[in-house]
């Protein structure tokens, strides 16, 4: 089957490459000529493990091509995916749908064969109706249907997630569109991935509800971690203890500095806006957004406390290890490190940092921070070392070496280390929600 993917960002590129790997004939389209040029040369615009290899092998097999020309790219495609960005709109937090609608218009103006138009971008309830209206108005004179097919892949694990999804959600009331979508995903039935067909509106809401629920889980355990610190309990045990209840589930109960990234912050905000518009407020999500924002700043204060409080902290030096919102990505969007660096700078603390992939994108977001060539270069002379993001490289730091070049103070915001072990090494050790 021929598939067109409009938008070659995180979701578009990974989905396009995986569809090609399934054996489909895929064209990835993007209006950014620099991005398309670099993809044609095998250079990935994002850091994602395994992506360059997957793209390379499918390009060589002739199943994956790139173009900036939408009309050419969608020619003969039976399924045309819209996977452009839906960032938070400046000022009001609504999802900005201008890119989605612009693409819908261009598809409408150029469509010459029957095709299913699929929104893969995360879009608010009702967007599919609008896309259908725009296409209808453009009056392509051929049969088309509009389906919703949200994507649940995680950055850093994108290819594995795409190929082994917990479920594939398809929202459409159209039988022909169901058939086309079943063909698109057929190879996944072999690994028993279930396909859930719903109405288009339900499918659109499923994506937001899933992300909001996960944000609730994380925020809940983060608040339990704060309580653990007060009452002398261990949040790792609490997590394990509640997660063993099948109704709760063990995943997404890892306490930390608060969630960040390209999805949870923007999708929770957009869900609040939809709920507001329809006068059905989602108060739990409202609280989660506020608590999570406050938490990122509070982590800065936690580091300052480890330095002996506000007065003692002034003029001291802190090394931040890991800046991206999570490991195995170079994505800095809404990363807790940004708020932490800001809180430290406000307190007159000098900050150095090292991240395996994120420093390029981090630089403009934290201009006061000195980026270093390695973890130990950042740690050299520091009064405290802070693990902000749990890259594997920080899981086995040489504590003796740190003691030789810096103060033995470790603030572990991801609970990577065993408190007893680190303390036995002569360190002051602060973690999240553990005595
Ligand atoms: C998320 C969703 O998981 C994915 O389904 C959706 O399609 C896009 O958003 P992603 O943003 O790539 O994916 O990252 P994820 O691994 O879910 O982590 C999100 C944030 O939550 C990170 O900042 C992470 O550090 C944090 N997190 C996650 C926790 O603090 N604790 C946890 O237990 C899990």
TrEMBL record:
Keyword annotations from UniProtKB, A to Z: NAD, Oxidoreductase
UniProt KW Ubl conjugation keyword: no
Record: residues binding NAD(+): 30, 35, 86, 122, 155, 266, 333
Gene3D superfamilies, alphabetized: Cytochrome c1, transmembrane anchor, C-terminal, NAD(P)-binding Rossmann-like Domain
Source taxon at top rank: Bacteria
Catalytic activities: UDP-alpha-D-glucose + 2 NAD(+) + H2O = UDP-alpha-D-glucuronate + 2 NADH + 3 H(+)
Residues reported in the UniProt entry to bind substrate: 152-155, 207, 252-256, 260, 326
PROSITE patterns, per database record: PROKAR_LIPOPROTEIN (PS51257)
Pathway assigned to this chain's UniProt record: Nucleotide-sugar biosynthesis; UDP-alpha-D-glucuronate biosynthesis; UDP-alpha-D-glucuronate from UDP-alpha-D-glucose: step 1/1
InterPro entries: 6-PGluconate_DH-like_C_sf (IPR008927), NAD(P)-bd_dom_sf (IPR036291), UDP-Glc/GDP-Man (IPR017476), UDP-Glc/GDP-Man_DH_C (IPR014027), UDP-Glc/GDP-Man_DH_C_sf (IPR036220), UDP-Glc/GDP-Man_DH_dimer (IPR014026), UDP-Glc/GDP-Man_DH_N (IPR001732), UDPglc_DH_bac (IPR028357)
Domain UDP-glucose/GDP-mannose dehydrogenase C-terminal stretches: 319-419
Keyword NAD: yes
EC annotation from Swiss-Prot or TrEMBL: 1.1.1.22
Active site positions, chain numbering: 263
One annotated GO biological process: UDP-glucuronate biosynthetic process
Entry's Gene Ontology molecular function annotations: NAD binding; UDP-glucose 6-dehydrogenase activity
Family: Belongs to the UDP-glucose/GDP-mannose dehydrogenase family.
NCBIfam families in the cross-refs: NDP-sugDHase (TIGR03026)
Protein name in UniProt: UDP-glucose 6-dehydrogenase
Organism: Novosphingobium kunmingense
Lineage summary: Bacteria, Pseudomonadati, Pseudomonadota, Alphaproteobacteria, Sphingomonadales
């Amino acid at each position: 089957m021929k598939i067109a993917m409009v938008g070659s960002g995180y979701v578009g590129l990974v989905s396009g490459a995986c569809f090609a790997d399934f054996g489909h004939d895929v064209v990835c389209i993007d209006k950014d000529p620099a991005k398309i040029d670099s993809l044609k040369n095998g250079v990935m615009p994002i850091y994602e493990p395994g992506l360059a290899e997957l793209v390379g092998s499918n390009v060589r097999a002739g199943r994956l091509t790139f173009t900036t020309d939408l009309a050419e790219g969608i020619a003969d495609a039976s399924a045309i995916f819209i996977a452009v960005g839906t960032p938070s709109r400046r000022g009001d937090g609504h999802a900005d749908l201008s890119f989605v609608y612009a693409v819908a218009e261009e598809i409408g103006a150029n469509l010459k064969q029957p095709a299913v138009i699929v929104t893969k971008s995360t879009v608010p309830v009702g967007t599919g109706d609008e896309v259908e209206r725009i296409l209808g108005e453009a009056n392509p004179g051929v049969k088309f249907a509009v389906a919703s097919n949200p994507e649940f892949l995680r950055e850093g694990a994108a290819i594995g997630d795409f190929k082994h999804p917990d479920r594939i959600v398809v929202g459409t009331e159209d039988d022909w569109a169901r058939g086309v979508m079943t063909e698109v995903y057929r190879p996944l039935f072999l690994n028993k991935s279930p396909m859930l067909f719903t109405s288009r509106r339900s499918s659109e809401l499923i994506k937001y509800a899933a992300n909001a629920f996960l944000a609730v889980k994380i925020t809940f355990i983060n608040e339990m971690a704060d309580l653990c610190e007060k009452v002398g309990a261990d949040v790792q045990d609490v997590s394990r203890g509640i997660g063993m209840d099948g109704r709760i589930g063990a995943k997404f109960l890892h306490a930390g500095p608060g969630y960040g990234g390209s999805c949870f912050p923007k999708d929770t905000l957009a869900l609040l806006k939809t709920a507001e518009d329809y006068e059905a407020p989602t108060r739990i999500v409202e609280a989660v957004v506020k608590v999570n924002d406050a938490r990122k700043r509070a982590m800065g204060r936690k580091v300052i406390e480890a330095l002996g409080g506000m007065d003692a902290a002034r003029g001291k030096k802190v090394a931040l290890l890991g800046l991206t919102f999570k490991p195995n990505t170079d994505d800095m969007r809404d990363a807790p490190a940004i708020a932490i660096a800001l809180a430290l700078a406000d307190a007159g603390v000098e900050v150095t940092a090292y991240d395996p992939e994120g420093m390029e994108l981090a630089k403009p977001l934290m201009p006061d921070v000195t980026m270093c060539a390695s973890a130990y270069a950042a740690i050299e002379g520091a009064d405290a070392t802070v693990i902000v993001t749990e890259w594997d490289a920080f899981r086995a730091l040489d504590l003796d070496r740190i003691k030789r070049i810096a103060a033995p103070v470790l603030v572990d915001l991801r609970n990577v280390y065993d408190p007893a072990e680190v303390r036995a090494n002569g360190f002051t050790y602060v973690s999240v929600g553990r005595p």
